[in-house]
Amino acid sequence: MTNRYVYGIVDGTEEPIEFETDAVGGADRVYTISHRRIGAVVSDIDTTDPEETDEDAQRHDDVLREVMEYDGGRSIVPMQFGMAFESDRTLKNVLRGARPAFRRAMNDVEGRFELGLKVVRDADADVDTEAVEETVAGELEPIAAQSVPNDLFSDRLVLNRSYLIDRDEREAFDEAVARLEEKREDLTFRYTGPFAPYSFVDVKIGAQQ
C-alpha cells in the first residue's frame, strides 16, 4: 500500500493526527502528511482509483467523525470519496498548489461542524411552507454561522437544510430545534449530525496521478 488516500485537510500547525481504525481500502491506520501549515489526513491504499463501495463510503465518513473528535476536537475540510495519490511527493505538490484555497476553507470551518434538519409533514397535512421556513429561520439562523438549502426529494419534505455551527453553539441549536418541535406538533423534525462540513467547502484538489 504505497499510495495515499485523502480524507480531508486540517491545520498543519497543530499536533499531528494518528490513530488506528478501519480505514478505506482495508487500511488500519490514519495519519497526517503536512506541508507548510496544512495537513492531509490520509491512510495507505493499494490503488489511486478506489471503488466507492457502501462499506468504504461509510469508512470515509467514520474517519472524518473520528478526526472531528480527536484530541478534544479538530476542524477538517472534508474531501469527497476517492481522492488517492501515488506518492507523498505527488500529494505535497497538490497541497502546495491548492494551499491558498485550503487556508481560506480552513478559516471558514475552524471550530465548526455541520448539522442537518429535515422538516416532514404528515401525509394528509396541509402546511404553509413559507410560514414554516420563516419560523425555522427565526429560531436557527441567528445561531448558525451559515446555512444552505438541500433538495426537497419528497413531496412530504417541507424543509431540508444544512447548518454550519460553532462547537460552543451546539447546545443553543439543540434547544432551538426542541422549541420548534414544541411549536409544530403536526410536523416531524429530523435532526442529524454532527458531520464534517461538506456543504460549506468547495475545494478541488486536482488529479490523482
What's the SSE pattern?
A: EEEEHEEHEHEEHE
Mean residue pLDDT: 90
Percent range for β-strand residues? 25-35%
Roughly how many Å is the radius of gyration?
Answer: 19 Å
How would you sum up the major sheet?
Answer: 6 strands, antiparallel
Structural class based on helices, strands and sheet pairing: alpha+beta
> How many helix segments?
4
Residue share in helix: 25-40%
Number of domains: 2
Beta-strand segment tally: 10
Poorly predicted runs:
none
Distance between the termini: 15 Å
- Form type: elongated
Labels describing this entry:
single chain, Alpha-Beta Plaits, 209 residues, six-stranded antiparallel β-sheet, alpha+beta, elongated, GvpL/GvpF, 10 strands, Gas vesicle synthesis GvpLGvpF, gas vesicle, 2 domains
Fold and architecture overview:
- The protein is an alpha+beta fold and 209 residues long.
- The chain has 2 domains: 3-110, no CATH class; 112-198, Alpha-Beta Plaits.
- The protein contains 4 helices and 10 strands; from the N terminus they run ββββαββαβαββαβ.
- The protein has helices at 54-69, 88-109, 129-140, 170-183; strands at 3-11, 18-20, 29-35, 38-45, 77-78, 84-85, 112-121, 146-149, 157-166, 187-195.
- Strands 1, 2, 3, 4, 5 and 6 form a 6-stranded antiparallel beta sheet that branches. A 4-stranded antiparallel beta sheet has the order 8-9-7-10.
- Strand 3 (29-35) and strand 4 form a beta hairpin.
- Helix 3 runs antiparallel to helix 4.
- The model has no long low-confidence stretch (mean pLDDT 90).
